[in-house]
Amino acid sequence: MVTLQQLVYFLAVAETRHFTRAAERARVAQPSLSKQIHGLESELGAPLFTRARGNIALTPAGEALLPVAKRILSDVDTARQEVAELVGLRRGRIRLGATPSLCVGVLADALRMFHDRYPGIELVVEEGGSRDLTAALLGGDLDLALVIVPPQGVDPALTSTPVLGEHLVVASSPDLDLPESFPLAVLRDYPMVMFRRGYDLRETTLQACRAAGFEPRFAVEGGEMDAVLRFVEAGLGVALVPSLVLPGRRGLRATSLRAPGIRRKVALAHRTDVPPTAAARAFRSVLFEHLDAWVAADAVPVGVELTPETPAVRAQSWT
Amino acid sequence: MVTLQQLVYFLAVAETRHFTRAAERARVAQPSLSKQIHGLESELGAPLFTRARGNIALTPAGEALLPVAKRILSDVDTARQEVAELVGLRRGRIRLGATPSLCVGVLADALRMFHDRYPGIELVVEEGGSRDLTAALLGGDLDLALVIVPPQGVDPALTSTPVLGEHLVVASSPDLDLPESFPLAVLRDYPMVMFRRGYDLRETTLQACRAAGFEPRFAVEGGEMDAVLRFVEAGLGVALVPSLVLPGRRGLRATSLRAPGIRRKVALAHRTDVPPTAAARAFRSVLFEHLDAWVAADAVPVGVELTPETPAVRAQSWT
DNA sequence: ACGCGAGGATAGCCTGAACCTATCGAGACG
DNA sequence: CGTCTCGATAGGTTCAGGCTATCCTCGCGT
């Protein structure tokens, strides 16, 4: 077996044209180097140097080996370098999934912070319903996803860390004359704008209405988050949406539900059987740092509950 | 230190996505392979595989390493291959020097035989005076040279093997009315055509004339072999030349000198401190084979004496 | 000519690395 | 809930690569 050690020594001799000095350079005793060179020569079946007193020179075989040996060793360096860059977060990629409610507020800031800190890491964000994201995680198409935790918990093949809880509010056009706050059952009398299948919100809304004793009427259905909000703005109907999506939407009015209201838990999930990459771990840190900053600045948006998880709980399965 | 062994194992796992099967493929026990992979991972500072049951996959670091590792291993193969081709005489180069007298006859045939047998080996022939060739050998510009052995022997830094002895004859124009055979002293009365400095023949001729008691007159001087012969053809004078250069020259007449005549020894020389390459050794064999064939076929040209060296003597310093 | 110094090769020893077998332990599956 | 699969771990053995000491050859200076 040819070894990299042999090639290193070979190169040292080829460049110094001197066994003793090559040995010094390679931080090794001269006999060790001699022995390795001999080993390489017998392995390749040809002498690599002519050992004339004070005039070591490469044989044709040595000449042929020299450029290849150089390339091999430089490739080894490259390999080491590349991996180091990934580990050092100077390079890499995170494929992150998120529900639309989070993309709007939390995520934009967190991504901004992350990108400032680790500019070499490529960020790929997939926006979608929670079910879709879960499937993408399991299929290996995402590294991380911010998903809604359904009542029965996330898929057993996923590990999730709670991130925050959000309240659902009723979005409506300001033209609509709704009370300040009301129980869900009031919506019985209003047509609704409903999300397409795949959105966790669709199921949540339907179940909540049924629990309140009525079957909702749909004015429109099938849209993504943005479309739904525009339809509501246009007065087509009302919708149950996370409060986080409303700030900045002048054309919409948010009405909270009377207690207990409806809450959803958002968690950061990843596959249990694939340990998160260094980049994913870094993103997690930045995300929680950002949320902690909200708490510290007393700037937690209305309708959001930060789960007061201890760092220990957060670190679960993330070491 | 990263080792090639580790890369081989890494590649086996990356391709089989299975430690146990990779170990079988690498002809090694599974724990040995596992350990090596761990060693590589700790060396590079990052895990290379995600060990999910029945679903081994590359981490980003592994993905980054894969192409480089492939290239490194393929380069090692290339290196081995290249050296093997040189050793196997499928590739290579011989830089051979020869005096003009030998280029004409012996060498052409020998080169032809050699090229037929080893078509991959590049042949570079330098024609020149014996002194020039010796200098080129010492300077490392030639691998081998067929040179004239001067009375005091070749340069001590060179090793030479006797090849043949050749007689010098007097070349003259057929118009010139010379006796069948005569002592050198007869030339006292004829103007001579003389080689340029650097030709061993120049010194040899001068010394021979002086030994015979006269200083030769030059009709022309300074030419290479071919020019000298043409001048002689043109009747400008006579010249002492190796008999080997005359066959095929219709316009010239060769007159041998009365005993003892003048003999020169031709030898194959190479630097003592640089062992001949495989290609050079092969050439030597072909050359002597060719000369032996002359003897066997009783086709030794007139004026040539083959030295009946035993193979043992020939092999001196050539192992 | 002879001694000396330089420099690569050789000898002999020692440590650590790589291999082996045996076994553990955790997820998958009937 | 046993059983199977498959990677990790443990412990022992061998050998490769390193070291020091020494040799051998050649060139060089006296």
Structure description:
Chain A is of the alpha/beta class and 319 residues long. Chain A contains 10 helices and 13 strands. In chain A, 42% of the residues lie in helices and 24% in strands. In chain A, the strands form 3 sheets. In chain A, strands 3, 4, 5, 6, 7, 10, 11, 12 and 13 form a 9-stranded mixed beta sheet that branches. In chain A, α1 crosses α4. The longest helix of chain A has 28 residues. The radius of gyration of chain A is 31 Å and the shape is rod-shaped. The two termini of chain A are 38 Å apart. At the A-B interface, α4 of A face α4 of B. The first copy, chain A, binds a DNA duplex (30 and 30 nucleotides) through α3.
Q: Quick recap of the structure?
A:
The structure is a homodimer of 319-residue chains. In chain A, 42% of the residues lie in helices and 24% in strands.
The count of DSSP E runs of length 2 or more, i.e. the number of strands of chain A, is: 13
* Second rung of CATH, namely the architecture of the largest domain in chain A: 3-Layer(aba) Sandwich
Note the beta-strand portion of chain A: 15-25%
- Write down the oligomeric state: homodimer
Number of helices of chain A: 10
Q: What is the number of independent domains of chain A?
A: 3
Q: How helical, in percent, are the residues of chain A?
A: 40-55%
Summarize the helix and strand pattern of chain A as letters: HHHEEHEHEHEEEEHEHEEEHEH
**Mean of pLDDT of chain A:** 88
Alpha-carbon distance between the two ends of chain A: 38 Å
> What ranges of chain A have pLDDT less than 50 throughout 5 or more consecutive residues?
none
Biggest protein-protein interface?
A: A-B, 42 and 42 residues
Alpha-beta content class of chain A: alpha/beta
The CATH superfamily of the largest domain in chain A appears as Periplasmic binding protein-like II
- CATH secondary-structure class of the largest domain in chain A: Alpha Beta
Biggest sheet overview of chain A: 9 strands, mixed
CATH topology of the largest domain in chain A: D-Maltodextrin-Binding Protein, domain 2
Question: Gyration radius of chain A, to the nearest Å?
Answer: 31 Å
